[in-house]
Amino acid sequence: MGDELPREQTGMRAPIMYRIVNVYAAQGFAGNPVAVITDSVDPTLMQQIARQLNCTATVFVRQTGPGAYSARMFSPKFEAAYGGAGSLGAVWAMGEGRWTQTTSGAVVETEYRDGHGYTTQPEPKVEMIPRDGLARAIGLRTIEGAYLGEAGGAHHLVVVTKDEPGGFAPDSSRLADIAARHRRCTIGAFRLGGDGTIHGRVFAPAQGVDEDPACAGGAGIVARVMQCNGTAGESFLIREGEEIGRPSRIEVVASAGAIRVGGPITLAADGRLHLG
Length: 276
What we know:
alpha+beta, eight-stranded mixed β-barrel, 276 residues, Diaminopimelate Epimerase, Chain A, domain 1, 6 helices, 17 strands
């Protein structure tokens, strides 16, 4: 192999190292898969890389100073201003301790310790919206209320229902139409479980994700909606992903003026992406 030319003389680019972590799950093959990249990457390639890896979120992380880093978060289809799962993936990559994370949509405080990640969230803006078409799109029999929220530049539509999530019958075409009308929002339906947890399912067709195993970026919106309805206290658990075989548990603490979400993080895979 001594006759091989150095990579820079062949025009080939160095491979990019990536790791995939499952966030909001303590075991393998569960939670939300997030790809994390700390290598320096040409920004014009980031969306292509996210599409290639095809995780719910692909996060490019760069330390900017002591206890601080910036992150860019991409779904398979577009860059997100902020994301809960992406934030946990990012802080896992940065390592133990407390950090300040900056994305295009928010500056939040993150923490990683003992296999768990945490992030504060911006206080959401929430408005009630008409229910038109939502029952057929999600496949619901009951709707108690429909709300559109924004947090950190990301939009999430939250429906409160009495239906069991296992009985939802989502219509992908109708969901895509609704997401397009509401700024590429995710669409989730939630109910209070018998064990005091909040159980839901979230669909993200605009992001190229049929069903999100753990949409923590919308957890603050779910919290404020459920608290307003009197069905949630300051601290509770959101269950998602069970119906697609990726059970997830999002820990939420939503006190007056402060929202913090978190959960366990496990390494699922690592590898190299060859750019040619």
